[in-house]
Design goal:
212 residues; HDIG_dom; mainly alpha; globular; binds fe (ii) ion
Length: 212
């Protein structure tokens, strides 16, 4: 259950999450020529340019956060997931531990910090959206970077016809696909964009509102 934050604790959470993103981003973006922070900021800027709602902008900014949260948190989240899968019931039957990666950790991590279900679901979906797009569009697949093509194999490969249908019935289907397309384009070297600070206010307001 997410805590009920006042403005101060919402600010602390935002500081924490932005630190995690900044620290993790000191590493290079795997297989690309820009840093993870630049990649995140470019993804979020495209959401802003498209006048997406604040939840979608935050999801774009934080979509790779699962790669950077501390090891203990990541392990706790994965342990919880395998526990759930062990006691599969109707409500948990969509838990498939074997195919989980940083996007799942990211979504759960954000839920724990009090971000909304929409933000968490969009973050969780950026890999499945790629699997959808590679199934639907050969040109999309051909346009992926070699790093992204390589990771697709470990992410389960393109969706089957049945998985495509199921995904298209998701209420957040369009946003999920759109976020993925921004993610793919967010690899431009040398773009000068507003920094993390410029997202602080919407993140704080979001945390206060989503716990109300
Ligand atoms: Fe990404």
């Amino acid at each position: 259950m997410a805590p009920q934050p006042d403005i101060e604790s919402a600010q602390q959470t935002v500081e924490l999450i932005f630190n995690v993103l900044e620290e993790g981003s000191k590493k290079e973006y795997l297989g690309e020529d820009i840093s993870q922070l630049e990649h995140s900021l470019q993804t979020a800027q495209q959401a802003r340019d498209a006048q997406a709602d604040n939840e979608t902008v935050l999801a774009a900014l934080l979509h790779d956060i699962g790669q950077f949260c501390d090891r203990q948190t990541a392990m706790d989240i994965m342990a919880e997931a395998s526990d759930l899968a062990g006691k599969t019931t109707e409500s948990t039957s969509n838990v498939k531990v074997g195919v989980k990666g940083h996007e799942y950790i990211g979504g759960q991590y954000l839920r724990r910090l009090g971000f909304s279900e929409k933000v968490a679901q969009l973050v969780e979906a950026h890999v499945v959206a790629k699997r959808y797009l590679t199934a639907m569009d050969q040109a999309y697949y051909d346009g992926l970077s070699s790093a992204s093509k390589a990771s697709l194999k470990y992410q389960g490969g393109p969706f089957s016809a049945e998985q495509v249908k199921e995904f298209e019935s998701d209420p957040l289907f369009r946003e999920k696909v759109q976020l993925r397309l921004w993610d793919d384009k967010a690899k431009v070297v040398g773009l000068d964009l507003p920094g993390l600070e410029s997202y602080k206010d919407i993140a704080v307001q979001h945390l206060i509102r989503s716990s109300a």
